[in-house]
Amino acid sequence: MAASAVSPDTPPLCEIEGLQIGFRTHDGTLVEAVRDLSLTLAPGERLGIVGESGSGKSLTGRALLGLLPAAAQCRARALRFDGRDLLTLSARERRKLCGSAMGMILQDPKYSLNPVMTVGKQMAEAFRLREPGLRGRALRERIVDALAAVEIRDPARVADAYPHELSGGMGQRVMIAMMVSTGPRLLVADEPTSALDVAVSMQVLAVLDDMIARHRTGLVFISHDLPLVMSFCDRVAVMYAGRVVETCAARDLVHATHPYTRGLLAATPPLSNPPDALPVLERDPAWLTEAAR
């Protein structure tokens, strides 16, 4: 997949400055999960966020859409989307914005799909948020076409199925179809291809490609797959313990300078002649305080 061309003079679609997310323990101690994070995203840009599990990648994406857990304590110097200050919006305004202009593909479809509604009814809700007049046969055709685009066999049958009747990979494809087909301005994709085989993953990436080309969607692509991020994204932010320790063009990730990033790359097994054991990442406490590269 070829990365998109984004002019450096393009005004940002999203701006995050000084994002802090923490959780209180039972004794009142505040544990910081995201620390002073700052990022920007341009229209039509693909920003990859990589790092180990627990580094704060998903929380960062959720903060943009206002989908943090109730126990989370979140503050930021600035959190803007398309020129609007998200910190000043009411909960109702944030929900409306999420339904019409922003979307998120969650890592586990079990927590994304309503178990008591058919796939088709849930997709119909998503379509009507952007096109209230879409009904009847035209709506049904849009739903079936969206499911077919992500390589779902017999999409008409799946549209009438309930989530529990689908496999994990198929549920993930339903979520991708639902989010992509409405053409959001911003899409946060949290491990969107992790539950899919290689062939279907490539088809899903092609669907994301088409969405970005048609709608100039800004994509935040959260992943553990560094080779995929290098080939699919424009820029990469590397997170460690809630902080961004390095940012670079995706094509330059192989030349990363931060030892944490180099450790992640070294831990990626090669396709040919894999070693008997992968290197163990040795952490340095200084990574928690030094400036991002």
From TrEMBL:
Its main location: membrane. The keyword Lyase does not apply. Residues 16-266 form the ABC transporter domain. GO terms for cellular component: plasma membrane. One of its GO terms (molecular function) is ATP hydrolysis activity. It is a peripheral membrane protein. The keyword Membrane applies. It comes from the Bacteria. Keywords: ATP-binding, Cell inner membrane, Cell membrane, Membrane, Nucleotide-binding, Transport. InterPro entries: AAA+_ATPase, ABC_Ni/Peptide_Import, ABC_transporter-like_ATP-bd, P-loop_NTPase. It is found in: Cell inner membrane. Belongs to the ABC transporter superfamily. This is Peptide ABC transporter ATP-binding protein. It comes from Burkholderia mayonis.
